[in-house]
Amino acid sequence: MLQTTGLVKRFDGVEALAGVDLTVGDGEVVAVLGPSGSGKSTLLRVVAGLERPDAGRVLWNGEDVTDVPPHLRRFGLMFQSYALFPHLTVAGNVAFGLRMMGLSPDEVARRTEEALRWVDLDGFGDRPVEGLSGGEQQRVALARTLAPEPRLVMLDEPLGALDRNLRERLVVDTRRLLRERGATALYVTHDHAEADAVADRVAIMRNGRICQTGALEEIRRDPADDWVADFVGAP
Amino acid sequence: MDRRLDRDRPAIGTRRLTLALAALPVAFLGYLFVYPVGRVLWLALAGEPGTAFARVLADPRMRGSAWFTLWQAGLSTALTLLAAFPLTWAVARYRFWGRRLVRALVTVPFVLPTVVVGTAFVALGLDGSLAAILAAHVFYNMAVVVRTVGGLWSRLDPDLVDSARALGASPWRAFRTVTLPLLRPAIAAASSIVFLFTFTSFGVVLILGNLRWRTIEVEIYHQAITFLRLPAAGALAVLQMVGVTAILVLYSRYQERRAVRMRLVAEHQTLRRPTGVRLKAAVAAAVLGTTAAVMIPLGGLLAASFANGGAGWRFLTQPGPLATRPVEAIGNSLAFAAVATLMAVVVGTLSALVVSRGSGLVSRWFDVVLMLPLGTSAVTIGFGFLVALDRPVDLRATWILVPLAHALVAVPFVVRAAAPILRSVRPEVREAATMLGASPRRVFAEIDLPIVARAVAVGAGFAAAISLGEFGATSFIVRPNTITIPTLIFRLLSRPGSVSFAAAMAMAVLLAVLTAALIMAVDRVRAGEVGSF
Asked: To the nearest whole angstrom, how far is the Cα of A148 from the nearest Cα of chain B?
């Protein structure tokens, strides 16, 4: 279970996070939904350990991990730009995290193939990542993030770089994958439909704060304030 | 493993790692550049303050050298601009068969070692004359003008000139009032580069000047090596550094002013086919004239190497007029190139990593320091090695001194090749590796190193080419048992006799072929996979 308490992050005096309290239960998928500039990505980066908070703590199952370096947290993060390794093949990308775990080469190969099957990319292993289409790159990035079975999966606008048609198809696949793996996940998006389709619970974020959490349907029925009502399109 | 995170920075870019990477390059530059140049300064300033400078300035011989350095650089620059103008115009404006070929051809002299260029004009029987020096400078530097000025010219919006013409300007008037002012920044940049190269010209002037014409560089050599007047040589080196710095400052001023806002268009939109007999003839004349200017010295060199019934080539494997056999010099050059390349690649790659990793003060300051050897003449570096590297152990009697000097000269080129590629790797790629469990050290080994490998290959090619052709620094520190191809060519040229002459020609051809092959290999790697990252 992930828990954050009072996370504050300032950049040049501007508060990107202004005290974020958020809980993600085991096996739960929480979508962080908010307009651009609301601090969603910063929240992920602080939880990941790529940014250090100015105040507040990050807890995993009650243990304080705020001072644990990012590579030792066993959290996974999928970037909006995918950040695929340009010098490695598809399989090389997916195998990276498994190799870092110190698994045997056989085990790495087996789990890499398995992860590629999850995203319907079996047979793509030897290809360079360069020639892949946007949708294929997205799936490689997803397989790479999920393969080492991180304790927490974070996805930063994972479908944001794709066109609408592809997004609608892949959101279903992504949801299925997270469910099947029983993943505990934090999913950042600015798209309501995507948040609704993927998540058990939605956290609405604005100006570095979480304004309201709950199922999107509930929030629509009973918005906390006028801004939230307007943002989620309450009747 | 350090569990505490640095407060100010993303956890991934640990400052300790950056500092660790910088340690070797800092030590390398400190011992091989800062310390020797400091000793040269000390030589010039020690004793009665200013005496060395006063003596140098009062000596008519040295005043003559300084004055010659200035005016020949100015004249060489003007002549280069004039000589390069026809081809610059032709390739910038027109599309014709062989356009790319002639552009590549004019670049060939620029990548050749200066000793080869000097030797080519000796082959034409022109040595000892001012004309030969000026011609060699023009031959060597035309590419700078064609590339810099032609590059901008071919991308100027043709509508600008067309508008001027529609407003009633004659072609000449349109050129003078529209094109030329727009090209001025490129012309200024090219001129300052050519001026810098000819101001610091050493090999060409030493070979072609026959002791009569001397630049400051050549004068430093004579004072230090021939007359053993080290304080005078030191004072000249300081004057030289002041001159170079002044030129570089002027150059960067021009670079800043270059920010004239104008729309540049793609080259394929501006190039036209030459129409009409007169225009076609003019383009043909420009292309053929330039081709002849490049081919005649190179052809002369090749022909001279076969003079005397091929004695020059036969001599390469036999004992000849000098104690050292040419084949030994070739072996030395290849071995030194290998060692120098290795050192330059290690130091250069580490430096490029430092420059590209951080945005902090360390890397910015480091970036500037790295480029200092570029702004210092090779002669000053060689002189510095000669007077300084007897401590803490006397390196001057060892062979390592030569590859060390070559590596120092090559490092900035390796950094320039590697740093842009490293910078092009988005930070998220490193962060993604971190999130997959890679420690900072692992990120470096698994992400940075493999990606830089190809850039290193390019840098290694440049380093090897520089090492093979290096003459300025080597001529100060070379010993009979460490003689290299360029220094042996120079010795052979200073001796009378047709065998020595033919042998020098043959070795110059060999050096030219080796260098050209390396540069072509580098070009292929660069055009191929590096660009696709």
From this structure: 8
